[in-house]
């Protein structure tokens, strides 16, 4: 009879399989113990795209040069960047549905997240404008 503290071949093989499986899964962010489904690398790429969109595309124009106006503009820009980042991080994994992008690795996924982060500001602005027109009519 084998001692309870000795490892058998089956135990070692099972632990190696579990370790390999855990290492292959990308980490996801949690909030309050709830999985959000957001990968940190895709979230960072979306943030870079959103930041570039605000800086280069001027999607959030500045307001008056008073302290209150500067604070309001900063708050609006922070909200636009955070919403664009989250939307890009949720929508970018859809690029893996295309077979040629899924086979290419991680780079196309991160590029899609960055482009979505920059473009999401215009897309969300158009959706809000369309919804407000329907609400007025």
General description of the model:
The chain is an all-alpha fold. The chain contains five helices and two strands; from the N terminus they run H-E-E-H-H-H-H. A two-stranded antiparallel sheet has the order 1-2. Helix 2 packs across helix 3 (67-91). The longest helix is centred in the last third of the chain and has 30 residues, at 107-136. The radius of gyration is 22 Å and the shape is globular. The chain starts with 8 loop residues before the first helix and ends with a helix. Mean pLDDT is 79; it is low at 10-23.
Q: What would the principal axes of the Cα set say about the shape? A: globular
Largest sheet: 2 strands, antiparallel
Radius of gyration: 22 Å
Question: Structural class, please?
Answer: mainly alpha
> What's the total helix number?
5
Strand content: under 5%
- The portion of residues assigned to helices is 55-70%
Can you tell me the residue ranges where pLDDT is under 50 for at least 5 consecutive residues?
Answer: 10-23
Determine the mean pLDDT. Answer: 79
